[in-house]
Amino acid sequence: MPLVVVGNDGRRQTIVAADAAATALGLRPGMALAQAQALVPGLAIHPMEPDADAEALRRVAAWCLRYAPLVAPDPPDGIWIDATGSTHLHGGEAAMLHDLTARFAAFGMATQSAIADTPGAAHALARFGQAAPHANPATTALFPLEALRLPSPLCESLRLLGFDRIGQLADTPRAPLVRRFGSIVALRLDQLSGAVFEPIVPTIPAALIQARLSFVEPLLTAPAFAAVIDRLTALVCTDLANAGQGARRLDLLFERVDGATPAIRIGTARPSRDPRHLARMLTERLERIDPGLGIEAMRLIATRTDMALPTQTAALSQPTDAPIAALVDRLSNRLGAARIFRHEPVESDVPERSVRRVPALHRNGGTNWPADLPRPVRLLDPPQPVETMALLPDHPPLAFTWRRVRHRVRHADGPERIAGEWWKRDGEMRSVRDYFRIEDEDGHRFWLFRRGDGDDPTTGDRRWFLHGFF
Amino acid sequence: MFQTSHARLNELRAQIARIERGTLAAPGQTVSIGAPEIDRTLPHGGLALGALHEIAGAGPDTEHGAAAALLTAGILARTTGPVLWAMEQADLFAPGLASVGLHPDRVVFAEAGKAVLATMEEGLRHPGLAAVVGEITGHFSPIAARRLQLAAEQTGVLAIALRRSRRFDDPALMQPTPAMTRWSIAVLPSPPALPHAPAVLGLGPARWRLMLTRCRGGAPGTWITEACDATGRIHLVPDFADGSAAATERLRA
């Protein structure tokens, strides 16, 4: 049943929001409720609850803290995320956006998201830039006036004067515009281009373990920040210990005198409340912070914690992997957690599937690959096709050409037949690879395979591939 | 007489090393390169821990460094504890490393992109590691090498720079660095698997020419060896095993 949310605009009840079914029936926000009911009998009507909406938006914003330390609700329907310095932890900007929309879709929420250099541009792009993936002056110039976050009466009067697009407004002399419409037009244009800085006032859920220190005089130097970090981590770690928790993610916010809030985020591979370790990771990332005219307060927040047993801090005396946990944390914060890994054997005959990446602190069961199968030390992914010269279809080739270099085969060993895993993939029902270890006349050893068993064409097309080096 | 002077010499070397480092890291701790015949010619009787060593492939293997990676994995197999292996792009195949005795549980890989050197230094500052390997493509500045050497000296962690390059005989691989030893490993054609029946299909152990091109406090040398076995050891080819010095001279001439 189509659903609309109605509010009161002073004189009459109007539609504030309509769901997809209602929109399809021609109902639009701003339409009078009486008219809508006349159009669609049996319309489901829900009264507007602005306070509950704002609260829900705050909760969603708090959830978005998983992506970056600075997040703020942008009523009525937006959320700012200051992704500066956080995208690499999620595999880059595009991957982060994709992850964000996918997760919201899983919650049943339709979202539009965009990344841009300024909050204004991101706001416009998310709402009006379906086609353009990244903001630049040329694309935002084509956006309608509403993308500037101007009040709608102002947009109407501008439109009467013939302004339809942001670009037209930007090309007009500023002084008459400001005299006629007030400084808001100029301000929004500058915020869009980044000429005027627009701070994001972050939302901080009160329930998190956190500590804040404000200073009599603004601080400017790295040693001063480091000293504050030591005190903040000590405070937070005490609270964490009392709560039986360890930090998995810490955000350090710098409250600058001009209202901006640069931030540092660190993550740990396992819950930690070792103040030295945490302080060192935070201090290492100080170079990313621009103190501007000075920092007047700093706040450290444990945005994600996990239960940590009290024995954890005493682990230094035991021969555990605690030291390597610290190293893994620091490398993960530098490179991204996905780039620090171990390899774990997987029971699969197909070589490229016999290895799986696992987190560096994952406990492997001590398993190893079977020792009797010769495997190369470097693997080409994907295997590269080679030209071969072979006398017999099921023998190793006499010579092969890879990257325009011809290798004459002096010794060869094989075949090692590897059948497709038909129980995992339908396409491999009959496919077969025959692997040969080959040494050329200079002594270089290669791992070549032929698709198919060399006889039955349904098992493969008999093409040769280079898969690795010994 | 010879014994005593040799011992005295080692003692003096250790003393100088202590003065040079200014640290208390136990000097003279080594890990074997894989063959006792080669270890004997090295200043401390093996690859010194807490020092930077360089291994490079030769010829077409400069690009992939397959033999160099195998030799490195063989050396790491003789250490105990976790090792960090930093590379630009992950192209190593762990079953291949396991085949020379390096267990997968021990290796933490870091796909570091352009930050291989920084990752290595980070690892070398952690005493919990047994060794740090970094695959360095192309130029390796002496200043960076010196930094790694100093970091390794402080913690006593073995540092191995695995040099790679897209070009054969890249001049960047020839430039001097402060590494303790520098090895170049070239593959040679291996003899038939069955010497009496060369026509039979099969592969014997691969054959390497291992060149020690630079060694602080020692003499360079060249050895013909078989590739690492399942425990990471290398064996001098029997023809020369009776006198490796003679073989060295012959090859150098």
Describe the model.
The complex is a heterodimer of chains A (470) and B (253). In chain A, α5 (119-128) crosses α10 (184-193) and α11 packs antiparallel against α12 (275-284). Among the domains of chain A are: 3-48, MutS, DNA mismatch repair protein, domain I; 114-193, no CATH class; 209-308, 2-Layer Sandwich (Dna Ligase, domain 1), CATH 3.30.1490.100; 378-469, no CATH class. The termini of chain A are far apart. Chain A has helices at residues 20-24, 33-39, 50-63, 93-106, 119-128, 137-140, 152-160, 166-171, 174-181, 184-193, 222-243, 275-284, 322-335; strands spanning 3-8, 13-18, 44-47, 70-74, 78-82, 209-219, 245-256, 263-272, 295-307, 340-345, 355-359, 378-389, 399-402, 405-419, 432-440, 445-451, 464-469. By secondary structure, chain A is an alpha+beta fold. Chain A has 13 helices and 17 strands. In chain A, strands 12-13-14-15-16-17 form a 6-stranded antiparallel β-barrel. In chain A, strands 6-9-7-8 form a 4-stranded antiparallel sheet. Chain B is α/β, with parallel strands linked by helices and 253 residues long. Chain B has one domain (26-187, 202-252): Rossmann fold, CATH 3.40.50.300. Helix content of chain B is 34%, strand content 23%. Chain B has helices at 2-21, 36-39, 61-64, 66-77, 94-98, 116-124, 142-155, 171-174, 238-241, 244-252, and strands at 30-31, 47-48, 52-57, 83-87, 107-111, 131-137, 158-164, 181-188, 207-215, 221-226, 235-236. In chain B, a hairpin with a 5-residue loop joins β9 and β10. Chain B is globular, with a radius of gyration of 18 Å. The interface between A and B is large, with 53 and 53 residues. β10 of chain A pairs antiparallel with β5 (107-111) of chain B.
